[in-house]
Design brief:
Layout lengths: L7 H10 L1 H10 L12 H11 L4 H12 L9 H6 L2 H6 L4 H15 L6 H4 L4 H8 L7 H11 L11 H10 L8 H7 L7 H58 L1
Helix pairs in contact: 1-2, 2-13, 3-7, 9-10, 11-13
Protein backbone atom coordinates (compact mmCIF):
# COMPACT_ATOMS: atom_id res chain seq x y z
CA UNK A 1 0.00 0.00 0.00
CA UNK A 2 1.64 3.22 -1.21
CA UNK A 3 0.74 5.51 1.65
CA UNK A 4 1.21 9.21 2.19
CA UNK A 5 4.52 9.63 4.08
CA UNK A 6 2.71 11.30 6.97
CA UNK A 7 0.39 8.35 7.50
CA UNK A 8 2.69 5.35 7.18
CA UNK A 9 3.08 5.07 10.95
CA UNK A 10 -0.70 5.38 11.38
CA UNK A 11 -1.36 2.63 8.85
CA UNK A 12 1.14 0.31 10.52
CA UNK A 13 -0.44 0.89 13.93
CA UNK A 14 -4.02 0.43 12.72
CA UNK A 15 -3.19 -2.68 10.71
CA UNK A 16 -1.52 -4.27 13.73
CA UNK A 17 -4.20 -3.31 16.27
CA UNK A 18 -7.46 -3.97 14.39
CA UNK A 19 -7.84 -7.01 12.12
CA UNK A 20 -11.14 -5.95 10.57
CA UNK A 21 -9.88 -2.47 9.89
CA UNK A 22 -6.73 -3.98 8.36
CA UNK A 23 -8.90 -5.87 5.83
CA UNK A 24 -10.77 -2.69 4.94
CA UNK A 25 -7.51 -0.77 4.53
CA UNK A 26 -6.19 -3.40 2.15
CA UNK A 27 -9.35 -3.04 0.03
CA UNK A 28 -9.60 0.77 0.15
CA UNK A 29 -5.94 1.58 -0.41
CA UNK A 30 -3.87 4.36 1.16
CA UNK A 31 -5.42 7.06 3.31
CA UNK A 32 -6.53 9.99 1.19
CA UNK A 33 -6.17 12.77 3.75
CA UNK A 34 -3.84 15.36 2.17
CA UNK A 35 -3.62 18.54 4.27
CA UNK A 36 -2.64 21.64 2.27
CA UNK A 37 0.77 23.15 2.86
CA UNK A 38 -0.84 26.52 3.51
CA UNK A 39 -4.14 26.91 5.36
CA UNK A 40 -5.94 30.27 5.01
CA UNK A 41 -8.30 30.16 7.99
CA UNK A 42 -10.88 32.80 7.05
CA UNK A 43 -11.51 31.72 3.42
CA UNK A 44 -11.69 28.06 4.44
CA UNK A 45 -14.23 28.63 7.21
CA UNK A 46 -16.17 31.10 5.07
CA UNK A 47 -16.46 28.43 2.38
CA UNK A 48 -17.75 25.91 4.90
CA UNK A 49 -20.47 28.36 5.95
CA UNK A 50 -21.53 29.01 2.35
CA UNK A 51 -21.69 25.28 1.58
CA UNK A 52 -23.90 24.38 4.54
CA UNK A 53 -27.24 22.79 3.55
CA UNK A 54 -26.71 23.44 -0.16
CA UNK A 55 -26.00 21.20 -3.13
CA UNK A 56 -22.37 21.41 -4.20
CA UNK A 57 -23.01 23.15 -7.54
CA UNK A 58 -25.31 25.77 -6.03
CA UNK A 59 -22.88 26.49 -3.18
CA UNK A 60 -19.93 26.75 -5.58
CA UNK A 61 -21.80 29.28 -7.71
CA UNK A 62 -22.65 31.45 -4.69
CA UNK A 63 -19.11 31.22 -3.33
CA UNK A 64 -17.73 32.23 -6.72
CA UNK A 65 -19.92 35.34 -6.78
CA UNK A 66 -18.90 36.24 -3.23
CA UNK A 67 -15.20 35.81 -4.06
CA UNK A 68 -15.64 38.07 -7.08
CA UNK A 69 -16.42 40.93 -4.66
CA UNK A 70 -12.84 40.80 -3.32
CA UNK A 71 -9.68 42.09 -5.01
CA UNK A 72 -8.05 39.15 -6.86
CA UNK A 73 -10.84 37.01 -5.36
CA UNK A 74 -8.88 36.82 -2.09
CA UNK A 75 -11.39 36.81 0.77
CA UNK A 76 -10.30 38.72 3.89
CA UNK A 77 -12.27 39.45 7.08
CA UNK A 78 -11.66 43.20 6.95
CA UNK A 79 -12.86 43.51 3.37
CA UNK A 80 -15.96 41.40 4.07
CA UNK A 81 -17.01 43.73 6.90
CA UNK A 82 -16.61 46.70 4.53
CA UNK A 83 -18.88 45.24 1.86
CA UNK A 84 -22.47 46.42 1.63
CA UNK A 85 -25.11 43.95 2.70
CA UNK A 86 -26.85 44.40 -0.64
CA UNK A 87 -23.74 43.26 -2.51
CA UNK A 88 -23.38 40.11 -0.43
CA UNK A 89 -27.09 39.33 -0.55
CA UNK A 90 -26.98 39.94 -4.29
CA UNK A 91 -24.33 37.22 -4.56
CA UNK A 92 -26.90 34.76 -3.26
CA UNK A 93 -26.18 34.64 0.47
CA UNK A 94 -29.13 34.09 2.78
CA UNK A 95 -29.60 36.46 5.70
CA UNK A 96 -28.47 33.74 8.12
CA UNK A 97 -25.28 33.00 6.20
CA UNK A 98 -24.47 36.68 5.82
CA UNK A 99 -24.80 37.07 9.60
CA UNK A 100 -22.56 34.02 10.13
CA UNK A 101 -19.91 35.33 7.71
CA UNK A 102 -19.85 38.74 9.39
CA UNK A 103 -19.52 37.06 12.79
CA UNK A 104 -16.67 34.90 11.45
CA UNK A 105 -14.91 37.99 10.09
CA UNK A 106 -15.25 39.87 13.38
CA UNK A 107 -13.99 36.92 15.41
CA UNK A 108 -11.02 36.41 13.09
CA UNK A 109 -10.07 40.05 13.57
CA UNK A 110 -10.49 40.09 17.37
CA UNK A 111 -8.51 36.87 17.80
CA UNK A 112 -11.34 34.59 18.93
CA UNK A 113 -10.65 32.48 15.85
CA UNK A 114 -6.90 31.77 15.96
CA UNK A 115 -4.58 32.16 13.01
CA UNK A 116 -3.16 29.04 11.39
CA UNK A 117 0.14 29.68 13.18
CA UNK A 118 -1.60 29.99 16.54
CA UNK A 119 -3.58 26.80 15.88
CA UNK A 120 -0.27 25.00 15.46
CA UNK A 121 0.43 25.65 19.14
CA UNK A 122 -3.03 24.59 20.37
CA UNK A 123 -4.58 21.21 21.06
CA UNK A 124 -7.68 19.99 19.21
CA UNK A 125 -10.22 20.75 21.92
CA UNK A 126 -8.99 24.30 22.37
CA UNK A 127 -9.34 24.94 18.64
CA UNK A 128 -12.84 23.45 18.66
CA UNK A 129 -13.84 25.58 21.65
CA UNK A 130 -12.55 28.78 20.03
CA UNK A 131 -13.77 28.34 16.47
CA UNK A 132 -17.20 26.95 17.38
CA UNK A 133 -17.99 30.29 19.04
CA UNK A 134 -18.68 31.59 15.53
CA UNK A 135 -22.36 31.69 14.61
CA UNK A 136 -23.17 28.84 12.22
CA UNK A 137 -20.03 26.81 12.95
CA UNK A 138 -20.41 23.74 15.13
CA UNK A 139 -18.13 21.04 16.42
CA UNK A 140 -18.43 18.88 13.28
CA UNK A 141 -17.29 21.71 11.00
CA UNK A 142 -14.21 22.34 13.15
CA UNK A 143 -13.43 18.61 13.29
CA UNK A 144 -13.45 18.46 9.48
CA UNK A 145 -11.06 21.40 9.45
CA UNK A 146 -8.80 19.66 11.95
CA UNK A 147 -8.67 16.49 9.86
CA UNK A 148 -8.50 17.76 6.30
CA UNK A 149 -6.94 21.22 6.60
CA UNK A 150 -4.66 20.89 9.61
CA UNK A 151 -3.94 17.17 9.33
CA UNK A 152 -4.56 16.50 13.02
CA UNK A 153 -4.10 12.73 13.49
CA UNK A 154 -6.38 11.86 16.40
CA UNK A 155 -9.84 13.32 15.69
CA UNK A 156 -12.90 11.08 16.06
CA UNK A 157 -16.03 12.85 14.68
CA UNK A 158 -18.66 10.95 16.66
CA UNK A 159 -21.51 13.04 15.21
CA UNK A 160 -20.64 12.21 11.60
CA UNK A 161 -23.20 9.88 10.03
CA UNK A 162 -20.68 8.38 7.59
CA UNK A 163 -18.27 7.43 10.37
CA UNK A 164 -21.12 5.93 12.41
CA UNK A 165 -22.45 4.01 9.39
CA UNK A 166 -19.00 2.75 8.49
CA UNK A 167 -18.37 1.54 12.03
CA UNK A 168 -21.74 -0.19 12.12
CA UNK A 169 -20.98 -2.05 8.89
CA UNK A 170 -17.38 -2.95 9.64
CA UNK A 171 -18.07 -4.30 13.12
CA UNK A 172 -21.48 -5.79 12.23
CA UNK A 173 -23.48 -3.79 14.73
CA UNK A 174 -27.26 -4.08 14.65
CA UNK A 175 -27.76 -0.35 15.12
CA UNK A 176 -25.80 2.82 14.49
CA UNK A 177 -23.36 3.20 17.41
CA UNK A 178 -23.81 6.05 19.84
CA UNK A 179 -20.96 8.31 20.95
CA UNK A 180 -19.99 6.15 23.91
CA UNK A 181 -19.78 2.95 21.90
CA UNK A 182 -17.81 4.71 19.17
CA UNK A 183 -15.26 5.96 21.67
CA UNK A 184 -14.91 2.48 23.18
CA UNK A 185 -14.45 0.94 19.75
CA UNK A 186 -11.88 3.59 18.83
CA UNK A 187 -9.61 3.03 21.82
CA UNK A 188 -7.40 0.71 19.79
CA UNK A 189 -7.07 3.38 17.09
CA UNK A 190 -5.39 5.99 19.25
CA UNK A 191 -3.47 8.13 18.40
CA UNK A 192 -4.65 7.80 14.78
CA UNK A 193 -8.43 8.24 14.94
CA UNK A 194 -8.45 10.66 11.99
CA UNK A 195 -7.00 8.03 9.67
CA UNK A 196 -9.35 5.34 11.01
CA UNK A 197 -12.28 7.72 10.51
CA UNK A 198 -11.28 8.16 6.87
CA UNK A 199 -11.58 4.40 6.46
CA UNK A 200 -14.97 4.42 8.19
CA UNK A 201 -16.15 6.76 5.43
CA UNK A 202 -14.94 4.20 2.89
CA UNK A 203 -16.83 1.44 4.75
CA UNK A 204 -19.93 3.63 4.71
CA UNK A 205 -19.64 4.08 0.95
CA UNK A 206 -19.40 0.31 0.53
CA UNK A 207 -22.48 -0.13 2.71
CA UNK A 208 -24.41 2.42 0.66
CA UNK A 209 -23.40 0.72 -2.59
CA UNK A 210 -24.47 -2.67 -1.21
CA UNK A 211 -27.82 -1.26 -0.06
CA UNK A 212 -28.44 0.30 -3.48
CA UNK A 213 -27.61 -2.97 -5.21
CA UNK A 214 -29.97 -4.86 -2.89
CA UNK A 215 -32.69 -2.29 -3.54
CA UNK A 216 -32.25 -2.67 -7.31
CA UNK A 217 -32.50 -6.47 -7.03
CA UNK A 218 -35.62 -6.18 -4.87
CA UNK A 219 -37.18 -3.76 -7.35
CA UNK A 220 -36.33 -6.07 -10.26
CA UNK A 221 -37.94 -9.03 -8.44
CA UNK A 222 -41.09 -7.01 -7.79
CA UNK A 223 -41.32 -6.00 -11.46
CA UNK A 224 -40.80 -9.61 -12.55
CA UNK A 225 -43.44 -10.86 -10.10
CA UNK A 226 -45.89 -8.20 -11.28
CA UNK A 227 -45.19 -9.04 -14.92
CA UNK A 228 -45.70 -12.74 -14.18
CA UNK A 229 -48.95 -11.99 -12.33
CA UNK A 230 -50.26 -9.92 -15.23
CA UNK A 231 -49.27 -12.64 -17.67
CA UNK A 232 -51.10 -15.29 -15.61
CA UNK A 233 -54.17 -13.08 -15.42
CA UNK A 234 -54.18 -12.55 -19.19
CA UNK A 235 -53.65 -16.27 -19.79
CA UNK A 236 -56.48 -17.06 -17.38
CA UNK A 237 -58.84 -14.66 -19.15
CA UNK A 238 -57.97 -16.15 -22.54
CA UNK A 239 -58.55 -19.68 -21.23
CA UNK A 240 -61.90 -18.63 -19.75
CA UNK A 241 -62.92 -17.00 -23.01
CA UNK A 242 -62.06 -20.15 -24.97
CA UNK A 243 -64.04 -22.27 -22.52
CA UNK A 244 -67.09 -20.03 -22.91
CA UNK A 245 -66.72 -20.17 -26.66
CA UNK A 246 -66.58 -23.99 -26.62
CA UNK A 247 -69.60 -24.24 -24.38
CA UNK A 248 -71.50 -21.87 -26.63
CA UNK A 249 -70.76 -24.03 -29.68
CA UNK A 250 -71.91 -27.19 -27.89
CA UNK A 251 -75.09 -25.50 -26.94
Amino acid sequence: MNSHPGWSEAEQHLTASDARLAELMAQAGPCGIRPPKRFPVFPALASSIVYQQLAGSAAAAILGRVQALFPRRQMTPARLLELEESALRGAGLSAAKLTALRDLAAKCLDGTVPTAAAMGRMDDEEIIERVSQVRGIGRWTVEMMLIFDLGRPNVLPVDDYGVRKGMQRLYRMRELPDKHRMRRQARKWHPWCSVASWYMWRASEQATATEKQAARKKSAKKKLAKKSSVKKAVTGKKAAAKKVKRNTRKA
